Amino acid sequence: MLPLLCACLLLVARASGGSDVSSDAHFNTEEHIRDMHAKVTEIWQEVTGRQAAGGGGPDATLYTACHVRPSATLDASEPQVTGLVLFRQLAPGARLDAFFELEGFPAESNGSSHAIHVHQFGDMSQGCESTGPHYNPLGVQHPQHPGDFGNFPVRDGSLWKYRTGLAASLSGPHSIVGRAVVVHAGEDDLGRGGNPASLENGNAGRRLACCVVGLSGPAPWARQALEHTERKKRRRESECKAA
Ligand SMILES: *[C@@H]1O[C@H](CO)[C@@H](O)[C@H](O)[C@H]1NC(C)=O
Ligand SMILES: [Cu+2]
Ligand SMILES: [Zn+2]
After folding, report:
1. CB 177 within 8 A of CB 215
2. Going by CA atoms, what residue is nearest to atom 13 of ligand 1?
3. How many C-beta atoms lie closer than 10 Å to residue 73's C-beta?
4. Residue spans of alpha helices (H) in the chain
5. What region holds the Superoxide dismutase copper/zinc binding domain (predicted)?
6. Who lines ligand 1 at CB under 6 A?
7. From the CA of 201, how far away is ligand 2's center (Å)?
8. Which of 43, 109, 117 is nearest to 79 (CA)?
């Protein structure tokens, strides 16, 4: 199977690299990249799918855990946001499910919305500043990046959300494993800000906190699912009492 994969990749590479770079290649670069991505992803899915079917075990689910820490470049007066972001991918190529669990937002930010994105590098050596721009493997505009998760409301200093159908992937050529999740001080304008930055990063403001997406076993996800259910129940109960 491996020689087959190599042969396919070689064909794809030759098909795209063999054209005359000096003439119309520039014009079609974006289309080429997208086309090549589709082919490589297809090959990847076929290979991983076969591995899962034969001997790889019946469960091809992937899990990651990302421990959010305040950016090292913030001063002490800034909000110290901490928490956990978990992803789950039930099969290669499937959309992601996620838990976002953050706390440490200041009281005056009650009701505010905060952008969360996947950034290119899992490098936190200069706090969240060294995680680079939005992860953008297809060279498209914001908010079409795979890690453009939009806005999350803060309530009483914390943010917790279960989301499904996220376009990012934990496998394949555009996996977000090893890259960073960044929590911003501001709201994402979702590309409607009317300036160039809006189409790059949504003008979401300072980087408050971040983490590196790392593979994990299923245990953190199971714990969080339980915690999420119990918290929802508690909130419902307190709302009933208040009513
Ligand atoms: C924060 O806002 C929520 C409604 O979004 C409200 O129920 C809650 O009482 C507010 N908390 C504080 C501390 O103002
Ligand atoms: Cu961001
Ligand atoms: Zn983006």
Report:
1. yes
2. 156
3. 14
4. 2-17, 25-53, 198-201, 219-242
5. 81-213
6. 107, 110-111, 155-156
7. 6
8. 109
Residue showing tokens 């508690």: 234
Beta strands in 21-124 (DSSP E): 62-70, 82-89, 96-103, 113-119
Q: Half-sphere exposure (CA, 13 Å, Cβ side) for 204?
A: 30
- Please indicate whether residue 184 is annotated as part of the active site: yes
- Distance between CA atoms of residues 164 and 221, nearest Å: 14
The predicted model scores a pTM of 0.80
Residue 196 Cα to ligand 3 midpoint, Å, equals 12
> Given the CA of residue 110, which atom of ligand 1 is nearest to it?
1
Catalytic site includes residue 117 = yes
Q: What is the pLDDT of residues 173-223, one digit of tens each?
A: 999 999 999 999 999 999 999 999 999 999 999 999 999 999 999 999 999
Q: Does a cis peptide bond (omega within 30 degrees of 0) precede residue 143?
A: yes
CATH match of 61-235 with 2.60.40.200: yes
Question: Domains of the chain: which residue ranges?
Answer: 2-55, 61-235
Identity at 42, one-letter amino acid code: E
Buried-state track 89-106, b at ≥16 Cβ within 10 A, e below 16? beebebebbbbbbbbbbe
Q: What is the pLDDT of residue 104?
A: 98
